[in-house]
Write a structure and sequence with these properties.
Layout (H helix, E strand, L loop, with lengths): L4 E6 L10 H9 L2 E5 L8 H6 L8 E5 L7 H19 L5 E5 L9 H11 L4 E5 L4 H9 L10 E4 L5 H10 L2 E4 L6 H10 L6 E5 L7 E3 L14 E6 L6
Helix pairs in contact: 3-4
Bound molecules: S-adenosylmethionine (SAM).
Length: about 240
């Protein structure tokens, strides 16, 4: 019997209509739909995004990816998740894995796919690209992310004040992901470099609780959710 295919489907930043037509088709036709399990009994963001597109007869497969740094425990979680997916693939059933934003942009799906391929080499994997958060944030801000010759840097997390200053001196546009835990330190750097008026925070871009902060000068202490990012236009073409 031919094995099924694992589809890594980018479901976009929040608005369910930001799924691609291809992603939606594969999501609807796959008998099994996997996604990162939510925490404290709440559905995770990818599950929330796709709920309106699911059929009752589809099997839902929440996979646990703990938010920890311990490599050994993480590997155990990826192996367990790969085993759960292989259970269906080996019976010829396709599995659609829903990933918030784009599946190739800082996503847990990559670890799942690599572990699956390593443990079960016959597994077939296909990736469907989609809308990632920096582009969604630019859209809701009503700004182009970049123009003309502008250099863009995206920092995923764990940036130091020195890294940030160096990047802000080199690039014209900087996007900071996972900014919620370091917002105050970032604010101090932006203040020092006089960039607060050219910086924007977007909370939950295109999700129901979306909030936009345009002027950060008087906002040194924002309490931001995990789904927040900061865009700095370190030098815009009109300045
Ligand atoms: C692990 S990364 C995942 C990125 C995701 N795969 C993407 O394509 O955007 C998580 C970080 O992306 C950013 N992010 C993802 N979705 C977002 C959204 N809808 N609004 C604001 N920030 C978002 C936040 O900075 C969050 O901490």
């Amino acid at each position: 019997m031919p094995v099924g295919t694992l589809y890594g489907i980018s479901v976009g930043p929040g608005d369910p209509e930001l799924l691609t037509l291809k992603g939606l088709r594969l999501l609807k036709q796959s008998p099994v739909v996997a996604f990162p399990a939510g925490v404290r009994g709440q559905p995770g963001i990818a599950q929330q995004i796709i709920t309106k597109w699911l059929r009752q007869e589809q099997v839902l497969l929440p996979l646990t990816f703990p938010y920890i740094q311990d490599d050994h425990l993480l590997m155990q979680a990826w192996k367990a998740a790969a085993g759960q997916v292989w259970h269906y693939l080996s019976q010829g059933a396709d599995v659609a894995f829903a990933c918030e934003g784009d599946v190739g942009f800082y996503s847990t799906f990559t670890y799942l796919a690599q572990t699956l391929q390593h443990l079960y080499p016959p597994a077939e994997i296909q990736i469907v690209p989609g809308v990632s958060s920096p582009l969604a944030a630019a859209a809701v801000l009503g700004l182009p992310l970049t123009l003309r010759h502008q250099r863009l840097v995206i920092l995923p997390a764990l940036y130091t004040a020195t890294d940030l200053k160096n990047v802000l001196r080199w690039a014209e546009v900087v996007v900071l992901l996972k900014v919620s835990s370091v917002y105050r330190q970032v604010w101090d750097v932006l203040h020092e470099l006089e960039l607060l008026e050219h910086s924007y925070v977007v909370e939950r871009a295109t999700q129901p609780g979306q909030v936009i902060h345009h002027d950060l000068v008087n906002k040194p202490n924002l309490a931001l959710p995990y789904f927040s990012l900061l865009v700095v236009q370190a030098e815009s073409p009109d300045r």
